[in-house]
Amino acid sequence: MINKSACKEVSNRKVKEHRWEKEIKIFLNHKLGMLGLGGVVFLILIALLAPIISEPVSGYGNYEDKLLAPSANHWFGTDDMGLDLFSQVIWGTRASIKVGLIAVFVAMIIGIPIGLMSGYFGGIYETLGMGLTEVFLTIPMLPLMIITAAVSESTTINTVALIIGIFSWPSIARITRSSTLRVCGMQYIEAAKSLGLKTRSIIFKHILINASTPVFVNLTIVMATSIITESAISFLGLGDPLAYSWGKILHNAYLSGAFSTAWWYSLFPSIGIMLFVISFNFLSMGVRDALNPKISRE
């Protein structure tokens, strides 16, 4: 006798595989999404291969090499201390991706549990979780981040990333809650409850997986905004003084007085920031459209 539950499981697995094939196909045909993915892969490769591409920036440069325009010897020119800007921008890519990853991880481990608990349990959990979220959303985040970075005893690139992550979780919490409420209303969640499955299993194996699409899209946006925030903090001189991030390069350009006169000093780190933000925004657009149920059914 054929096991009906086994047949149903095989059928569901085939449906999921077919759905993933359609979603991947939609993403591959999404021009902006593929462009964003190419930019992200390019930036990751630069970060990983930074030790091979250029030497780490350290010490002081030669006075005679001060503020040299781009040339065969210095592709991006030099700064006011005679240091090579190409090396600074390359290593700044690694610093920027590091900030983004840490910020996303911190925002995720704070925002997702709050959103899940608020959406699934409701009641006091929702009141406290969404109340805290609303408080954080009403506070001007950038000034508060700047104040936090200013009063921090030891400002490192990890500290800056941690600060950005701590203040970036509210949007993730709200999206997780709304997705959780949508999934909780589906019949298979009610069936799982009636079968006596553990709450932890229902939340993490059924709700979180099926509610993860908008959360993942928002995480890519947090990744993009984190570099803008880090650049703003570093530009104000509150970043890591020992790390060459793109914001730190712009800060040095401003302090030297060559921000506008030596065009290459501010141009190339600005291009790096722009490429980072646009790539992750385009990637989020592609992922959002590929995982959109309305588009997937077409």
TrEMBL record:
Cellular component terms (Gene Ontology): plasma membrane
Span of domain ABC transmembrane type-1: 93-284
Family membership: Belongs to the binding-protein-dependent transport system permease family.
Protein origin, superkingdom: Bacteria
UniProt GO BP: transmembrane transport
Membrane topology: Multi-pass membrane protein
PANTHER family in alphabetical order: D,D-DIPEPTIDE TRANSPORT SYSTEM PERMEASE PROTEIN DDPC-RELATED, OLIGOPEPTIDE TRANSPORT SYSTEM PERMEASE PROTEIN APPC
InterPro entries: BP-dependent_transpt_permease, MetI-like, MetI-like_sf, OppC_N
Entry protein name: Peptide/nickel transport system permease protein
Cellular localisation: Cell membrane
Transmembrane segments: 32-53, 95-116, 128-151, 157-176, 207-228, 262-283
SUPFAM superfamilies named among the record's database cross-references: MetI-like (SSF161098)
Biological classification of the source: Bacteria, Bacillati, Bacillota, Clostridia, Peptostreptococcales
Pfam families in UniProt: BPD_transp_1, OppC_N
Keywords, comma-separated and alphabetical: Cell membrane, Membrane, Transmembrane, Transmembrane helix, Transport
